[in-house]
Amino acid sequence: MAISLIAILISGSFSLPTAAGQFQSGGVDKDGTWYAGEGLKQGDYFRYSMCHVDYKECTNFEMDFWIQGDKQVGSETKWLAKAVVYDGNKVFVGELELGKIAPEPTGGSDQLSVYRGAFKSSIAWLSAFATSDDSSGGKGPKEFRAKSWGKIGNIGGEQVIPTAIETITVPAGTWETVRMSWKTGGYHSNVWLVDDFPFPIKAKTLTHVSEGIPPPEYIFELLEYKENVKEDPFVGIKGETEKAAEMGCPTNFERTQTVKRPTKNFSYQVHAFYGPEHPIKGCNMQVQINFLSKFDDTEFLNQVQYDFLLVDKDLKPLRSLAKDEGRPFLYSPSGQTLIDFVVNAEPGIARYAVWVYGLAPEGIVPSTPADYLILEIPISSHDTPSPSVQSIPSWIKNNAGWWADGSIDDSSFVQGIQFLIKEGIMKVPTPKTSTSSGSEPESWFG
Predict the structure, then answer these.
(1) Are the C-beta atoms of residues 193 and 178 closer than 8 Å to each other?
(2) pTM value > 0.90
């Protein structure tokens, strides 16, 4: 038996399993090819409902865009598209520049930058495999009968394959589609294409995770499609940038202010960045929050149920961003989130609470007690200057720590306090009567 097996191996009549045996085979019984941007033309109007994991953990928004015509950018001719994004109660108006070989947005208005990225990584994503040009190393159109359109290297080389012919209905109508699929951690992601139509009409895809149920990567569907639209359909629509400028609000700011501290009961670490430096009542403010392990500030937490609250001095909520969105809580599967809202706090020092209910999947109540971090943020108005916040010298902070651990004596620490009083940094109220010594001031610092 051993001799026979050796003979078979030598003669080559016995084949061993190879990596090719693991190839995922697809293809559907349909003639024709498709590429991203196929049939795109001047006057096309699209309206999509969509989300992407990189924007607020796949928070839904609507993007409408209209192909106005050509635009020359250097030596390249691109499509110029006008676009409007409806994100909650906010509206953003601008332009997109789309390539003609692959309709990926490569330029356009700054106010659409985050939505442009979501568009590129979702609606236009299949341009990574199928484009109009196969010359000079291009990808070219792909056949519906093909066993595979390529593989996704960043999730273990899974094949993107034509899987089935399906008739599906979306708000824009009923379409005969080809379903493109690939595996994501044991689950299937799907995008539905229509022959001779520039963009997919529907998608539901998942992120790659090593264990558990993967969260959505992107979801979209076509709400409306029109051809030969000759007049700008967005005339008269004002975007947030235009409205903010009319109100005197900052229109171009970065999240330069940062706070990094443990929560009150040391259950978590929170790293928050916000901007503008002096938010104005009635204007936009952005806060990026990183939820971190209390043991390791490089380890992001997962499945964070939280809220962002405006509270009074007794922690009574005055506003909840979760309730503003009609939700019981906000949710961050990755431990990183960006919130954008209009400030309604009165001018002065506003107390915002990053309120962490706990770590649990959506729909499951966390088993641990809630914890929070207070952010004190100076709010101004259009009619009043930004409130000044007097900083405490770093050497006083050091002295306090040294005094607490016994490294310096009481006299040295008191000298530092006396300096703060003399310079007006610390304010000590004068009692109205000699019998009011039992009262405690609300704030010692101006």
Answers:
(1) yes
(2) no
